[in-house]
Amino acid sequence: MREIRVLVATAWRVDRRLTLAMIAEPLGNTLVLMSGLWLAMLTNGVIRHDPRQVVIGIAALVLGAGLGWQLDLSASQWRMVLGEKVAHAFDTEIARLCAELPTLDHFERSEYQNQLELLRQRQGLLGNSLSALAVTVKAICAGLTVLILLVVAHPAMLALVLLALPALLITRTQQRWRATAEDASALPGRTARHLRTVAQDRDAAVEIRLFGLADYVERRIDTLWRAQRAPIEKTERKVALASLAQQLLYVTGVIAAVGFVLHQAIRGTSAPGDVVLAIYLSQQVQTAVIWPIQAVTGFGRTLHTVRRYLWLVDHARAAAPTGHLPAPERIVEGIRLENVSFRYPGTEKWVLRNVSLTIPAGGALAVVGENGAGKTTLVKLLTRMYEPTEGRITVDGTELADLDAEQWRERLAAAFQDFARFELTVQHAVGLGDLPHLDDTAHVRAALGRASADVLPQEAQLGTSWGGADLSTGQWQRLALARGLARTTPLVRFFDEPTASLDAFTEDALFGSMARATDGANGMITILVTHRFSTVRSADLIVVLADGGVAELGSHRDLLARDGRYARLYRSQADAFAG
């Protein structure tokens, strides 16, 4: 019932007038099914020479069937229009739910990925969900109408209903078969979709051609597609055989029921019109008695897809952050990590372990370390993309988990190595970093200047697929950096290797200016993450991560004087660069 409530509530929300008009479809179909009764009346009137019955029968046939067909046809067209609106509403809601999940945990969970893959594959069924509901109601009304007419023809005709009952058991079994097949097809389907995306990806095109992977990718996609289709096709064959057996049983019953009523009419215990009605119903029962069962089956498949949508709704609700305290306007003391440990969902390996660190207000922290040391993970924890597995993070003594996540992120700015390429105008691609100033050309111009990213006019379109400019990776990265610098007074600015595609001299100059550009009024903290040790000298504090923990902590001068890990790595890079 929850799935049905969601369907009706969505339809009512998008168009109340069309939702109410849907009632006309089962009403029209009922009027059409009543034609058998009027045919029986007309037949009896002709045989008995009763003009009154003839007139009523003809009038009811013309008016009832005509009005019924018109209502049925018009309502089905209205249903199609409403179905499109409902489909758009579901598509929009799914996109919103996926985009607004507060953390990134779900990307690490196979269950979520499989559910989302099945939802993507059958998202079209959500668009037809309202049609499936309307057809089911229409079929049930038709079934009730035919049941009444069966009693009118002869109560013995109700035996046809008994012959249709096995379809209920068969239908439930078929639903279970199909659900099992869907689950089995999820993983190969998701993998095939990933490879299709890679095959069409511009960045992967070079490697695909260089390593001669086109044939391999094609064969792999074909193999996965067959693996995805195999359980579904096997199930559909079983479904078809079960349906055939049920249909043969029913046809046998129809022949026996019509023969019985005909025998009664020959003996004079039934009216001739009852024979006409029985013949008419023998054609209608097939659709009007079994049709509701089939409609419920199809609707059950739709509800299964709606159930996956509701799983996403419940997942988003369960993943909602618990913190509701307002984010501070300024940082007075700093950010403190107390015995923070973290491992990604579904894994046993600790990425960070017992990290304790104080980042003073108004300062610049550089985070360095080898690949896999946990540098980016630290940034994800501070931006609340993930919550610590153990320990806690505080901002001026208040736990970060207690702050409203959305408000906290509104007070942050960031640029990353793995950046998004928004194929919009330069103005909007940068302005997205500070939405209230999206169309403020002066504000965006200043951000471009801070990132040395004046690569194109602000009104220029980006992306060749839109007839725009084709930028290099370095140019795209400068725009991403400008987007990260669009907010002028954040509490914390994160720069997670945002200049990896730039040369060392440019990176050094940019990092130096970013580290110096602190705002004493709100205690803004700048956090620089890089694997290039030469660019962090201007930071107030440097933390060296190794093996998931803090290996060293101090200023550039102090760490060199200690002649430890930092000093060795720094000199190693300096020698390599000099060479």
From TrEMBL:
Protein's UniProt keywords contain Transmembrane: yes
Domain ABC transporter: residue ranges: 335-572
Transmembrane spans: 20-41, 53-71, 125-146, 152-170, 239-262
InterPro entries: AAA+_ATPase, ABC1_TM_dom, ABC1_TM_sf, ABC_transporter-like_ATP-bd, P-loop_NTPase, Type_1_exporter
Main location as per UniProt: membrane
Span of domain ABC transmembrane type-1: 126-301
Keywords for the protein's UniProt record, in alphabetical order: ATP-binding, Membrane, Nucleotide-binding, Transmembrane, Transmembrane helix
Superkingdom classification of source: Bacteria
UniProt subcellular location: Cell membrane
Membrane topology qualifier: Multi-pass membrane protein
Presence of keyword Transmembrane helix: yes
Gene3D superfamilies from the UniProt entry: ABC transporter type 1, transmembrane domain (1.20.1560.10), P-loop containing nucleotide triphosphate hydrolases (3.40.50.300)
PANTHER family: ATP-BINDING CASSETTE SUB-FAMILY B (PTHR24221), HAEMOLYSIN SECRETION ATP-BINDING PROTEIN (PTHR24221:SF646)
The name this protein goes by in its record: ABC transporter permease
Organism encoding this protein: Lentzea flava
